[in-house]
Structure prediction request, 171 residues.
Amino acid sequence: MPIDSSNDQALWFAVNRLYAAEARYLDQEDYERWFGLLTEDLHYWMPTRETRFLRDETAPDPQRMNFYKETLESLRMRASRLDTGTAWSENPRTRYRHLITNVEVFPAGGNEIRALSNFIVYRHRLEREEAWLVGQREDVLRTIDGELRIARRTILLDQSVLLSKNLNVYL
Prediction:
């Protein structure tokens, strides 16, 4: 379906449809289909968060510690590890549920769109391992051949300390 950036409702709907498909692919661990939603020049970044006094707060810096600072190629490499049989942290598999909400969409010029969203990701593994990841995302989406693709994603977790045993999840 071609994207009409002059129609706010159609644009918002198209972005929400993209995010719903993305959540489904990630929940099903269908990484090949997820990769199809990403651009070749993807920048996927999740900096660590620090709890600081108001006067000491600074913007996230990519040169400091990051949970993720990935490209499409590095994401493919991470996901391919899961199929090797040696990814012990995913045997048995983790169950995921991605919930995306509070989507806001802004034309960014040319064939790009800026989108803000919030997320909750529930993870369950084995009998008692549960983790919740909560935060916000800022995306740059690009129209390629009439379809929206994720070109840049910045993920800000609300947690500054992750209680999960691993970070084998995409947000």
Q: What stands out?
A: DSSP finds three helices and six strands in the chain.
